[in-house]
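About this split. The held-out portion is used to measure sequence recovery: a designer receives only the structure tokens and must propose an amino acid at every position. Recovery is the fraction of positions where the proposal matches the reference. Here is one held-out target exactly as it appears in the evaluation file.
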């Protein structure tokens, strides 16, 4: 029996791996890279298991942020890792924001420890886009009396310069006990006292910069609340939420140098950030935060060059609408992948993981999707275990796998699609949909004219079956769509 007990190995795609690796080898680049493809095709696997190990040694440093899962490791335990695309509970913008900022702060720490960033670098980046004298003056007020002071202090006198205020604020921050912005006992052990003091000053400068930007964002809270209430848009208010991560990007990009310090940022499942929930009225909405951050990454790359930023996603928004929203079709470097061809998959799978006869069955039913192939193989390895209900027969394994996908993936997705179509029919009846939108395709011209739920459900089901059948006819989707189509047609 082929491949008995062998562990599943990561099989690289040479072209994509080369494109991503060559992009990340540059210290600074003019634009971010968008890595888009369907769920389960192996994007996260390629990044985590092939590229991250190559970028983990000096002079490289990587901040890997998986917005869908807190851990940077594989999203879910196989073999049942094909979960619905939308999580049961939407992610909080507050949590995702902290995740992004913490990862960039870790990169900044690495830059400080290798001597690439100093206090003057932080002040220069802060002064380029922000007026900081008022916030610095307020930071120097003793905490005990700060709350009783006016919300926004008076302007500083002309005799007090920003560099002087900065030096005093950094000196005060050096003596504070803050584990997030200090040099630990096990860090910089081979450095002299002067070098360690320089690094500690740089860490204190980062803390002061974060406090200044946080204070300025706090002064805008009521304006943000009013913006959210009226539904208006303000670029300055949107940017206030992303000032801190974008300042770190600016500092790190200017510090990047080939063969010395080469930072990189990977945003995995970046679409989760755009769809997050935010119940705090004094914070900008998630979509606005997402757009502001990406806009500023694009601007930094176009104007000054930015550290390599890779955004990985399976959301179709980024392969079409994002290019319209951000105003230019080539604003991202885009590389899309749709998995193996059947011939490529057979080359990798036979006879290391499946026998020739097993592969014929797998290929006929599921096709060459790498994620599904790995899960089928893991089910095969777990066969005859007490906790499973199948043996090593490949047909029975595939039946078990399809039954799981039907319950956990296909049925929820189909119900969601049917609900969307019924809502469309309701909007047409109420006149919310322009007539021109109802002219694309004959079926869309005749939605149900009354609110009978049974009639609306039948109409939606016909539209959905027609849509899926078009995928089957063009062989765009997996072979398994044929089986799911049959199940959908059943009463």
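Reference sequence for scoring:
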């Amino acid at each position: 029996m082929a491949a008995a007990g062998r562990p599943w190995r990561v099989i690289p795609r040479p072209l994509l791996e080369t494109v991503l690796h060559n992009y990340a080898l540059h210290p600074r680049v003019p634009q971010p890279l968008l890595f888009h493809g369907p769920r389960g095709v192996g994007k996260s696997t390629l990044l985590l298991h092939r590229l991250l190990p190559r970028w983990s040694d000096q002079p490289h440093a990587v901040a890997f942020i998986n917005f869908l899962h807190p851990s940077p490791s594989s999203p879910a335990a196989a073999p049942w890792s094909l979960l619905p695309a939308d999580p049961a509970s939407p992610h909080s913008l507050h949590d995702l924001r902290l995740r992004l900022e913490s990862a960039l702060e870790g990169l900044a720490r690495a830059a400080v420890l290798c001597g690439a960033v100093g206090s003057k670098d932080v002040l220069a980046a802060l002064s380029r886009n922000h007026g900081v004298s008022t916030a610095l003056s307020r930071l120097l007020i003793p905490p005990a009396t700060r709350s009783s002071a006016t919300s926004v202090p008076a302007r500083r006198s002309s005799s007090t310069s920003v560099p002087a205020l900065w030096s005093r604020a950094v000196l005060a921050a050096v003596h504070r006990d803050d584990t997030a912005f200090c040099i630990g006992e096990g860090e910089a052990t081979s450095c002299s006292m002067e070098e360690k003091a320089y690094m500690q000053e740089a860490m204190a400068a980062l803390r002061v910069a974060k406090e200044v930007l946080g204070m300025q964002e706090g002064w805008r809270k009521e304006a943000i609340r009013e913006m959210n209430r009226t539904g208006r848009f303000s670029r300055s208010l949107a940017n206030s939420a992303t000032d801190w991560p974008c300042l770190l990007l600016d500092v790190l990009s200017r510090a990047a140098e080939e063969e010395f310090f080469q930072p990189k940022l990977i945003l995995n499942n970046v679409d989760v950030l755009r769809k997050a929930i935010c119940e705090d009225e004094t914070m900008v909405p998630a979509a606005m935060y997402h757009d502001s951050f990406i806009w500023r990454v694009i601007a930094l790359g176009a104007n000054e060059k930015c550290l390599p930023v890779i955004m990985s996603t399976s959301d179709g928004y980024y392969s079409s609408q994002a290019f319209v929203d951000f105003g230019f079709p080539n604003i991202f470097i885009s590389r899309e992948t749709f998995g193996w061809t059947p011939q490529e998959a057979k080359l990798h799978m036979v006879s290391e993981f499946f026998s020739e006869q097993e592969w014929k069955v797998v290929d006929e039913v599921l096709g060459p999707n790498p994620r599904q192939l790995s899960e089928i193989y893991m089910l095969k390895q777990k066969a005859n275990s007490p906790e499973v209900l199948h043996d090593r027969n490949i047909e029975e394994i595939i039946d078990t796998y399809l039954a799981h996908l039907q319950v956990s993936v296909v049925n929820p997705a189909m119900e969601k699609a049917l609900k969307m179509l019924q809502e469309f029919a309701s909007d047409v009846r109420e006149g919310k949909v322009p007539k021109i939108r109802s002219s694309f395709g004959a079926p869309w011209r005749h939605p149900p004219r009354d609110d009978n739920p049974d009639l609306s459900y039948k109409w939606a089901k016909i539209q959905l079956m027609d849509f899926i059948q078009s995928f089957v006819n063009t062989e765009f989707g997996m072979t398994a769509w044929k089986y799911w189509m049959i199940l959908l047609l059943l009463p």
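Annotator remark: The domain at 1-113+220-339 is CATH 3.40.50.300 (Rossmann fold).
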